[in-house]
Amino acid sequence: MRTILHADMDAFFAAVEQRDDPALRGRPVVVGGSSSRGVVAAASYEAREFGIHSAMPSAEARKRCPHARFVRGDMQKYARESRRIFELFHEFTPLVEGLSLDEAFLDLAGTERLHGPPVVAARALRARVREQTGLAVSVGIAPVKLVAKIASDLAKPDGLLEVPPGGVREFLEPLPVGRIWGIGPVARARLARAGIHTIAELAAAPDAVLRDALGSWGPQAARLARGEDAREVEPYREARSYGEENTFADDVSDARRLERAIREHAEAVARRLRRDGVRARGVTLKLKLARGLGGGRYPLLTRALTLPLATDDGAELARAGRELLGRAELCEPVRLLGVAATSLEPADRGQLELFDARAAARRTGLNRALDAIRERFGDAALARADAGGAERAGLSLQIKRGEGP
Q: In this structure, is the dihedral angle defined by the CA atoms of residues 222, 226, 228 and 234, taken in order, positive or negative?
């Protein structure tokens, strides 16, 4: 029987800020974008008492709690803390699957002789994180991923909840169906129309009813509701793509400003590719138009192309991004822009560059020199003179492959 632990830091960004600034302790703290289109990345528990939560527009958060302290945030600081925390996780097991900067699954199978029973190991892990970082982590323990994640959420803040193998169904059945991964507001409404509100009702529903409500995924949702989750902890999942995006502080129609944002994102993506030793053969441009569709929705355009040779060069990615921008034939302002590198392959895979080999070699040497400077002095050590087109509306808890220390 597997033993899976889900560790989730409590209000991670906000907790780091409160730890580092005594003036913020005990006060409502909101971390996120400060522009009119800013988004809450994290809210302290004091702020949550006012109904503030992550992904909420910062303007709405200000209305709910005008006296809250708003902090722009420091992703490099949060990334450093995340690495420290994950190093502590690895002291308990090599099988650690990071879901974001502040949460992970740990497979404790075979660790009992070293760390004791799972609940003892979990207590030791929580104490170790607090001792080394001054931060709180909530932990759920269960035989399957789904239940461990739900348990850690119910244990918050700063708690521990274990669901034994024989108690999975009893634990799940009274909970609302929204606790199941993949069941969001739309799926909940469809299930409600079918008279299904709790996980127990979902687990017992006929497949035909679930297919009508959720399509082909319906029966799988019922299996999860019965605690049938065979997914393993995957510590070595490969990235499928590398991407960067931003929401502009104001709607953008100027092609030159869009091209500057493309170049910034392309260079950032290329640095991460080089750090991970991979190249990309595909490039995708994402554009969210400024024309609102209601309900917080906006038209989304994507354009993609395949390169003749895989690359980890930001200039090549930016050139492709500009070509895709031209293909989009924009006739209205842009709210969000993103660049992604896809179709990845190892950088050491042999490829013959027939044209302009000298220029390619010079560019490779230049990239290595720039990477060395950034590794030593940080990503902000170098910037183009015309940079500044990629203001972000908020911060993300996402783990970005290839991020530098």
A: positive
Separation CA 367–CA 2 (nearest Å): 45
Residues 6+ apart with CB under 8 A from 338: 243, 244, 245, 246, 265, 285, 286, 287
Q: Are the C-beta atoms of residues 172 and 204 closer than 8 Å to each other?
A: no
The domain 1-164 belongs to what CATH superfamily? Reverse transcriptase/Diguanylate cyclase domain (3.30.70.270)
| pLDDT (mean) for 89-107 | 93
Give per-residue pLDDT as tens, 113-132: 999 999 999 999 999 999 99
- Rounded to a whole number of angstroms, the distance between the first and last alpha carbons of the chain is 37
- DSSP assignment of 37-97: T-BEEEE-HHHHTTT--TTSBHHHHHHH-TTPEEE---HHHHHHHHHHHHHHHHTT-S-EE
Q: Which fold has domain 242-381?
A: Dna Ligase; domain 1 (3.30.1490)
Helix (H) or strand (E) segment spanning residue 304: strand 300-311
Q: Residue 335 and residue 325: Cα distance in Å, rounded?
A: 14
Q: Does the structure show a pLDDT above 70 at 378? A: no
CA distance 244 to 156: 31
Sheet-wide strand order for 29-32: 40-43, 29-32, 69-71
Domains in the chain: boundaries: 1-164, 173-225, 242-381
Q: Is 332 a catalytic residue?
A: no
Alpha carbon 44 to its chain centroid, in Å, reads 19
Q: What is the pLDDT of residues 282-329, one digit of tens each?
A: 999 999 999 888 777 889 999 999 999 999 999 999 999 999 999 999
**Which residue out of 17, 103, 244, 267 is catalytically annotated?**
103
**Residue 196: pLDDT above 70?**
yes
Q: Is the pLDDT of residue 405 over 50?
A: no
Collapsing DSSP to helix, strand or coil, 175 comes out as: coil
